[in-house]
Write a structure and sequence with these properties.
A hairpin with a 2-residue loop joins strand 8 and strand 9. The protein is built from nine helices and ten strands. The chain has one domain: 3-Layer(aba) Sandwich (Protocatechuate 4,5-dioxygenase, Chain B), CATH 3.40.830. The protein is globular.
């Protein structure tokens, strides 16, 4: 099973014909997952924890200013108890994984999954983002790597650029700001080269900072995905690129 880093979008993603088709086409080419573990930018909590595993996990509507229809959306999920045990098994006894029995799925999980697996018939859990440190997140990805062999699809969910305070044109087809393009092209070059060290030095080396990421929680889930690579020397594959509301929606797959 590959590992993914996706731009999860906001709820209006669900009305974007191009992007939803890109996500569906990508998903159609993936093996059928036994379960999905998603690390979303919208759940930062340490030590690492997983969300509720009961069937019908509730959704978290952690956004505002959008059409009321998005607050009525549902995404029923099957029981994920077995998946929770499997995820917990890769954590050391000295570093146990906490489970939040009432924590639902935030929009960094349910928005893209509604497109990718619309039937809601695959067990889903979220794993909290426990740190912003690239090396620690690479190590977390390496810890999660055995889950790939068990048929679990692990997804880092964020956005390659996320400078919301600096956007001026709030339309899906907005011309991307220079800082968004500069950061995206810099990251694309490093991704295509498999240059994880350069990516990990984004704070000091990436053009467009800090505008591209005034806070970094939408970028750093990338390192969980990169840490899951079976062959760290093999470059990831960019599956989706382009811009949405001027932000880079570049999304990758790691073999």
């Amino acid at each position: 099973m590959p590992a993914l880093y996706i731009g999860h979008g906001a709820p209006p993603l669900l009305d974007d014909v191009l992007w939803t088709q890109q996500l569906r086409t990508w998903t159609a080419g993936l093996p059928r997952p036994r379960g999905i573990l998603i690390v979303s930018a919208h759940w930062e909590s340490a030590p690492a924890a997983i969300s509720a595993s009961a069937p019908g996990t509730p959704l978290i509507y952690d956004f505002g200013g959008f059409d009321p229809k998005y607050f009525r959306m549902t995404y029923p999920t099957p029981d994920a108890t077995e998946l929770a045990r499997l995820v917990a098994s890769v954590f050391a006894d000295s570093d146990p994984l906490h489970q939040h029995s009432s924590r639902g799925l935030d929009h960094g999980a349910w928005v893209p999954l509604t497109v990718m697996y619309p039937e809601g018939d695959v067990p889903v859990l979220q794993l909290s983002l426990p740190t912003h440190d690239p090396q620690r997140l690479l190590d977390l990805g390496a810890r999660l790597r055995p889950l790939r062999e068990q048929g679990v699809l692990v997804i880092g969910s964020g956005f390659l650029t996320h400078g919301l305070p600096y956007l001026r044109d709030w339309s899906p087809a907005a011309r991307p700001p220079g800082w968004s393009v500069d950061f995206d092209l810099w990251a694309a070059e490093a991704i295509d080269a498999g240059d994880v060290d350069t990516l990990a030095s984004y704070a000091n080396r990436a053009p467009g900072m800090p505008y591209a990421h005034p806070s970094v929680e939408h970028f750093v889930p990338l390192f969980v995905t990169l840490g899951m690579a079976a062959d760290p020397a093999a470059p990831p594959q960019t599956v989706i690129d382009g811009y949405w509301f001027g932000l880079a929606k570049r999304s990758i797959q790691v073999a």
